[in-house]
Amino acid sequence: MFDYDKWQEIFTSIGKHKLRTVLTAFGVAWGIFMLVLLLGAGKGLGNGIAYQFEGDALNSLWIRPGRTSVPYKGMKEGRRIKLDNDDYKFLLDEFEKIEELSGKYFLGGNKVAKYKEIALAYDVQGIHPDGAIVEGLSVTKGRALNYADQLENRKVAVIGEPVVEQLFKEEEPIGKMVTLDGAAYRIVGVFHDKEGERSMRRFYLPISTVQKVYSSLDRLDQLIIAAGDLSLADMDLLEQKTKEALQGRKMIAPDDRRALRVFNMANEYQSFVSLMFVMNGIIWMVGIFSMIAGVIGVSNIMLIIVKDRTKEIGIRKAIGATPGSIVSMIFQESIFITAIAGYVGLASGVGVLALLQGVESEFFRRPEVNFGVVFAATVVLVLAGVLAGLLPAIQASRINPVTAIKSD
Amino acid sequence: MIRLKNINKSYTMGANKLHVLKGLDINIDEGAFVSIMGSSGSGKSTLLNILGILDDYDEGEYWLGDQLIDKSLSEKQAAFFRNQHIGFVFQSFNLLNFKTAQENVALPLYYQKVPRKERAARALEYLDMVGLADWAGHYPNQMSGGQQQRVAISRALISNPQVILADEPTGALDSKTSHEVMEIFKKVNGQGITTIIVTHEDDIAELTNQVIRLKDGQIEN
Ligand SMILES: Nc1ncnc2c1ncn2[C@@H]1O[C@H](COP(=O)(O)OP(=O)(O)OP(=O)(O)O)[C@@H](O)[C@H]1O
Ligand SMILES: [Mg+2]
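^ thats the input. predicted complex w/ adenosine-5'-triphosphate below
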């Protein structure tokens, strides 16, 4: 039943005691606000890092050649290491655990692509047919590069979705000829890459074609190995084995860390997962501690408020208030203030997170909170505050009016 | 109306026990106008608080009308008697500072669940009776001591009690305002309400019809 009269009495009391109302409300609102920000920021951090892994095959090894840093077998340090098509064939033949393998050829600087009267510069890379898989591309139109393209050194290209928009506008790109760095290529497919816009402003060509056109024989700038669903330990083993094999072929000292750089995505991802685990743990700890601090703060204010009201309680009792009416007055008043404050804290926290949605940096994106968790936290804080006020209120409602009135 | 039989009351403070009321036997008729006198510390306030069910006693019997007031009375029943049968006026007024004069006066009716509008109307009526209708919207700290005490008396009267108990109601007032306040009590008593006033001023006691003198927790006469 909604007791209008009682609420009227409560509103009067709240309105006439602005300071203590504001103090209580601020304690609750601030606690919830900070909790929302904390959890949201943690999530944003996690999302930011998770984003770094989006797109590429997770169980993958990325091998790049460098220069030797240790003299080995009579050869001086500083020797430049090169990867080539033979290494590609070698890995493909020797390691059956490798499911997909692609070399990569980077053309330095952007190349100008011309279609009709539009000319724009794009990043161009040569890949093997498996390249689309290791890069995590999804072909949205036409087809991916295939073995026939590779074998016949076809002048074909797969382009990113933004390239279509920019070069072809409304036109159908598949089958059209584009002049790229002076040579003509036929567009056979369009791809999407979850990695983002930058990775899609790109032309992928068959690596054999690139090697031929840029007459660099059989150079590979990178070798990418994907190994399906190998376990983490097997991935480490594969990393070690392939590295050793390549070191043998290139006469690299086993302890030379610069000659071949292997990036084990699975391993990195695993450390990210454990980092997130630790970070989540810390966030929860901090969150729980700030909740405890909030509960203690609010409880203290409630205690002081009830103490402050002891004389009022005595007077009310002297003119006929029952202990029950006193307790329910304090109960409703405090639950009203803390609930509203909790809601305000929740809403402003979520509001600030909404403002932060636009922020997209390397380590931070899409901050969000689990609404259930935050709601539960609000309820806990409200209940704690109310309970903390309730116990002294019950006590105060029981002491005899004379003592209560004398209390200040 | 009020019958006290062998009322005893002690305060314990740590190991010390202070025997304040030592076997009081008092009868007060309905409609009486009584003053309680005695030196400071003789137990006047203690007695009045017991009469007002604001405090309890250790031994004896206290009959209010045909109701025995003792520890078997629940808190709720006690609240009911304080609310409906007794009006209490304190020396220090004890108004709620965050409520206006009118709201203060109306408060006992809130605990009787009287509708808001009716409460306000009746409070105004009672304020008018003590000459403060124009001050209805003022807060206690905007009023003089005499005015505050008159507000407190209105509050004690509004639930139309059988007994009015006043603990040194003029103690904080000058003699002119004291007499004005006593005029009001006289009027109240004229309506048949039993009126008991604690005082240590002879000229106040002279205005009542009966004087009970306390000395060291006993009746002196
Ligand atoms: N709550 C209490 N705890 C302990 N002792 C008390 C308490 N209230 C009163 N007393 C003591 O009981 C005695 C009687 O006090 P009471 O207030 O009844 O006196 P009084 O006659 O009203 O005096 P006064 O004229 O000063 O108001 C005093 O000695 C007082 O110190
Ligand atoms: Mg006294």
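The first strand of chain B starts at residue 2 and ends at 13.
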